[in-house]
Task: structure prediction
Amino acid sequence: MRHDHLITSKQLSRADIESILDRASEIDDDPEAVAQRQAGTLLGLLFFEPSTRTKMSFEAAIKRLGGDVVDMGAVESSSVTKGESLADTVRVIEGYADALVLRHPREGAAAMASEFVDVPLLNAGDGAGHHPTQTLLDLYTIRENAGLDDLTIGIMGDLKYGRTVHSLAYALTKFGATQHFISPESLRLPREVIYDLHLEGVTVKEHESVDEILPSLDVLYVTRIQRERFPDENEYAQIAGEYRINAEILEDAADDLTVMHPLPRVDEIAADVDDTDHAAYFEQAHNGVIVRMALLDSFLGDDDD
Amino acid sequence: MTETNHELRVSKIRSGTVIDHVRGGQALNVLAILGIDGADGEEVSVGMNVPSDRFARKDIVKVEGRELSQDEVDVLSLIAPDATINIVRDYEVVEKHRVERPDSVEGVLSCPNANCITTGSEPVVSRFTVLEDAVRCAYCETIVRDDIAAHIDT
Ligand SMILES: [Zn+2]
Result:
């Protein structure tokens, strides 16, 4: 796999994805073997909005490969508050680092920034756009728990603004998964995503309730419905309540159903699910580090390449 | 209308471009998409809602002293897919083209997504991929299907 930048999961072929996931498995089995793979490599972290966990996960990944980070720090303390453009910021910071990780509140930020730099740029989230490293760790978790072949998955919650969902749904088309999308009417998949899925030959199956399809699912991927998406507090409380799951609801599910969530959750998955065999969301979060190690190693290569 | 009359009508300018068979009501958008506002002194005449044999009503735009480039013709396809471009020299139509849809257009449209990176103060020109029945922002991937002319960056 050779790519200059990682902007969206769309640019990765099935073979690319499988090679990263295989590498992650190897790293998981023997982390010591790669402990110096990226010795001397500096990763530039540019987080234009707070996302402590994604940032920590990248930092842990490069350090476990023997590399280190240079961190722009909080936006408030940088030149950005003086009105510097993103294009200028990345052109300066690329001089300090061997690769850049960018998180930005605007859609298209990573695509644009990548046009201004020569070092590899990894998108760690651009507004409601893409978050390809989250997708890779989701795929890894699915593969470990349910397998990626003949998969039937339900993706539930905020499908309109949830970038995790969009990237994941697209990537899953490459594995021929059957995908069910469960959301309130007002938070259905945007037409851009439906368009992309149609191009891949996927029939988008939308549902307002998980009940009818729950027994058929191998994986249920739950996302948070945010309060700010609803102008009215009562409407929020009523609608969000219909997209919560607990251990009792899961009694109708297959015994080997895997429940995932990008975290943090609020109350969309009740605590009583944590103790069931269904819960895979903490494992999912932990997988972030090894998958990012695998990805960084693939993108950065080493002296032997 | 006979072909002879038609030729007469579009040949009335001395040298320049006649854009014919523009859908009724789109003439001003054609000028906008070409960035022609008369400020450079070009002689521009516009016929709107002219009876036509191909449409019930069509618009015609004539620009004296300026021959459209292929890029400009391509961009026109977004709002005037049926247009015919006549290049006129010394009152004669010397070239006649139909518009063709380009793969992408740059710097012509502005992205309707207020949260798109291209709508901030970044040093980039907009770029849209041209789909069969829509255009799509190359940065934030927003699809514009209806009323593309409303997004012309003037
Ligand atoms: Zn855009």
